[in-house]
Write a structure and sequence with these properties.
Layout lengths: L10 H14 L4 H14 L14 E5 L6 H13 L6 E3 L2 E3 L2 E5 L6 H11 L12 H13 L3 E5 L9 H18 L2 E6 L12 H4 L4 E2 L8 H18 L11 H11 L3 H16 L8 H11 L35 H12 L49
Parallel strand pairs: 1-6, 1-7, 4-5, 5-6
Antiparallel strand pairs: 2-3
Length: 390
């Protein structure tokens, strides 16, 4: 950590420290394997059409906070750090990796515009004609594009039915005509873009970004190790330390659903408060405040009063304890955990809230695009009571 008081850091220094902490999450084993999967896919590309392998699409699937956006951004960043990989000369730009975010509820027109725009151009051909595929292919060849990374690709499935079929055919045409590999990262619904008849030919094995598995010794150790490493990056003491308190580890797991992106979000928020001089140590209460700040809540209402009514002191902000995994007593936390255990396999209902985790699925990185197994959360065992009960 810098010797400069944290509250006096420049914006650039502040950002650099947050980036360093969030970058620590990239050492997560699954993210590292996912980077390797993208790299293997990309190696199928060669500029010679006579020797290039058939282009394929790789689906990277995970729930909110699984690290999908982080993964794609890091892959592009790694390529930009290679000397001469991205360059501009008299012949134009060379960009072997192109990353873009699919627009919300994108139809084919918006999807085409997003791809061509990411290449630095505006679509000239009619998006409903075969010419647009040739135009994209020509741009990719001139720019040396080898792989296109699509974030939020599940947006292409909104509306279902014929609309999805149109996108499926368009993606297949892009693979056939451009020779460029595609990575489609998104929520589990993105797999609706994968037509059954194309599974064996055009699709690489699906890569699932699964949460840490609290139900296995390996998963629990990996999760605890990550917390301890991030605690060291924050630079102020946690009281109690995440290293010494398995109950606090369990509270963090419950709050983040064991997902690497949400862990990063919580620890980054803690560091941000430290860098602004708000905290000199981090307690469960401070983590509870962060949890409450992330939890969706209605807009505060202001009660109307007479214009000449005497003002009163503003209410002191309090953090609700109920439902906050960092603030409730151990017995109540155990009840919350056991209620979580009773949730079914489908974890899709938790995408709009951080209030309570649903049971994630899709824990395996093998080739099972249509059937995904549920994550075992395991049983939370807190410290023993005086009578020996847990």
């Amino acid at each position: 950590m810098s010797e400069v008081p944290k509250s006096e850091l420049s914006p650039a220094e502040h950002q650099a420290m947050l980036f360093q902490l969030e970058g620590e999450c990239l050492d997560h084993m699954q993210l590292d394997k996912a980077l390797g999967a993208i790299d293997r896919l990309r190696k199928r590309y060669t500029p010679n059409p006579e020797t290039t392998l058939e282009a394929r699409a790789l689906f990277v699937v995970g729930y909110a906070g699984a690290g999908k956006s982080t993964l794609l951004a890091q892959y592009e960043r790694n390529e930009r750090m290679k000397p001469g990989a991205f360059r501009s000369d008299q012949d134009g730009d060379v960009r072997p990796v192109v990353r873009l975010q699919v627009p919300s509820s994108a139809q084919k027109r918006q999807f085409v515009s997003a791809i061509v725009g990411a290449l630095g151009y505006k679509a000239q051909a009619d998006v409903d004609s075969t010419a647009i595929v040739l135009e994209i292919g020509d741009l990719c060849r001139r720019m040396g594009v080898q792989v296109i990374l699509l974030d939020e690709a599940h947006e292409l499935t909104k509306g279902g039915g014929k609309r999805v079929e149109v996108i499926q055919e368009f993606v297949k045409s892009l693979l056939n005509q451009t020779g460029v590999q595609f990575v489609l990262a998104g929520l589990p619904g993105v797999l609706d873009l994968q037509p059954e008849e194309q599974v064996g030919r055009r699709m690489a094995p699906v890569f699932y970004l699964a949460p840490y598995d609290w139900g296995t010794e390996e998963g629990r150790v990996e999760f605890a190790t990550l917390l301890v490493e991030l605690e060291a990056k924050v630079g102020v003491p946690f009281v109690p330390s995440l290293l010494d308190d398995p109950v606090l580890q369990a509270r963090m797991y419950y709050a983040t659903k064991g997902r690497i992106g949400l862990v990063s979000k919580y620890m980054s928020a803690a560091l941000d408060k430290v860098l602004h001089g708000e905290l000199e140590k981090i307690t469960p209460y401070d983590l509870g405040v962060i949890f409450d700040e992330f939890r969706p809540k209605p807009m505060p209402a202001i009660a109307p009063v007479e214009f000449d009514a005497p003002p009163v002191a503003a209410a002191v902000r309090t953090v609700p304890v109920a439902g906050n995994p960092f603030l409730v007593e151990v017995d109540e936390f155990r009840r919350m955990w056991n209620s979580w255990l009773a949730v079914g396999e489908d974890g899709s209902g938790d995408e709009e809230t951080e209030a309570a985790p649903a049971k994630p699925d899709a824990t395996k990185n093998d080739y099972k695009p249509r059937k995904r197994e549920g994550q075992r959360k395991g049983t939370f065992r807190g410290p023993k009571a005086a009578d020996g009960r847990r």
